Amino acid sequence: MADIRLIEIKEDILSDNKNLADEIRAMLQRHHVFLLNLMASPGGGKTSLIVQTIRELKDVFRIGVIEGDIDSVVDAEIVSREGVPAVQLKTGGFCHLDASMIDMALKEMDLSNLDLIMIENIGNLVCPAEFDTGAMKNVMILSVPEGDDKPLKYPLMFSICDVLLVNKIDYLSVADFDMNVLKERVFNLNPKIKIFEVSCKTGEGIHAWVRWLTDELVFPMLTVQ
Amino acid sequence: MSIPKKNNDMRCFHFFPAVFLIAILKGCLYNQIMHELAVTESILNIVIKHAEKNHVEKVVTIHLKIGELTDLVDEYIQHYFDYLSKGTIAEGAVLNMERSPVVFQCTDCKTTFQVSLKDSGKIVCSQCDGAKAVLVSGREFYIKHIEVV
What ipTM goes with this model? Predict the structure, then answer.
């Protein structure tokens, strides 16, 4: 039998995706477009948060949405009712969006007429955490009924996000959910994460989130121009 | 500005046999293991790239380093790899997945300590009981080396 040789590789498994994501970020920065990647479990409130955010900001910024869905256009229809352009990506089975899918969606959008694009990623807390989409910021939603133990089960998702929105706080009085325990678990994994407590239903806390997003959009623009 | 297309074949689902697609959908809906397919395809592409560069006859073993924070089901990776690598120089290769534990370093006393997040979730320094720590290992996700003939 022939001798077995060893070839050193030391290459990141998802380096192609990461490189394309970096190119997307650079391209969007030249167009002054801010790309936000929103992730959550199914039913966590991604579409509701996008709708609330559009209502708060559509007079100030030109907003677009990229909807990722395994096989439906329901969310894209809800979003386009708000009067903003929405591109639907049907992933046909894939449960995450990657940089090449976002690249395709961006080619369908008029970047010179947009300030903010929100990606509604596929609903789950595992796969989307692994793939850089090219977004400037990663945001996740955890809704109160899901429980305060989720950082223990999906540590990667909590460790890669810049913002955690704890949604459905109107359920807190009836849920076995300890906000302090949750925050401790999340900060352990990710000391830099920003946490906002919101209810897309009552509107509570939405202003603080929208203010953060506005700052993220406006301050880089001020330094660039 | 045009961005060079890469990895586009990762999305060519309609070329997959229906049975395989159903298996994927099931995995996605019930176990959320779908990203293993994309990961496996990346592994295969990188391995073939290096194997061709080195004029290799056959790839025998692929050694991966994967942190415990990454949710990957080993059996699925090998299963998908066997499927995707058919007819390539990497066909029949065995994937060896070395897991690196989740390790934090205490911000106060600089001690490093291992944590099992799924058991307790408590991140407390084993030396000084400090609760502030930074992650130093557990997110590894790369191909170490390959054994070839």
Answer: 0.73
Residues in chain A predicted with pLDDT less than 70, given as ranges, are 1, 70-72, 92-93, 221-225
Q: Can you name the residues that pair with A138 across neighbouring β-strands? A: A37
Mean pLDDT, each 10-residue run in order, chain B (149 residues):
37 38 40 70 95 95 92 86 95 94 89 79 81 84 95
> What φ, ψ does residue A68 adopt, rounded to 5°?
-100, 130
Give yes or no for B12 touching A (CB within 8 A).
no
pLDDT in tens, A171-182: 999 999 999 999
Scanning chain A, the segments in alpha helix (DSSP H) are 15-30, 46-57, 74-80, 99-107, 150-153, 155-160, 179-189, 206-224
Q: Which residues of A touch B38 (CB under 8 A)?
A: 94, 96, 98, 131
Contact A191 B1 (CB under 8 A): no
B 88-107 residues inside an 8 A Cβ radius of A: 102
Phi-psi category of residue B6: left, alpha or beta, with phi > 0 → left and psi -120 to 50 → alpha: beta
Nearest chain B alpha carbon to A8: B145
C-alpha–C-alpha distance, residues A210 and A118, integer Å: 13
Contact status, residue A187 vs residue A193, Cβ threshold 8 Å: yes
- What are the distances in angstroms from CA A36 to CA A64, A108, A118, A215, B135? 11, 17, 5, 13, 25
Q: Taking CA atoms, what residue in B is nearest to A24?
A: B3
Say what the alpha-carbon torsion angle A198, A201, A202, A204 is, to the nearest 10 degrees. Answer: 10
Tell how strand A63-69 and strand A34-40 pair up.
unpaired
Exposure of A222 in the CB half-sphere (CA atoms within 13 A)? 6
Determine whether the interchain pair B34/A13 forms a contact, defined as Cβ–Cβ distance below 8 Å: no
Question: Percentage of chain B with pLDDT > 90?
Answer: 43
Note the Cα A49 to chain centre separation in Å.
11
Whether chain A has a CB inside 8 Å of the CB on B22: the answer is no
Q: What is the pLDDT of residues A176-207, one digit of tens each?
A: 999 999 999 999 888 899 999 999 999 999 99
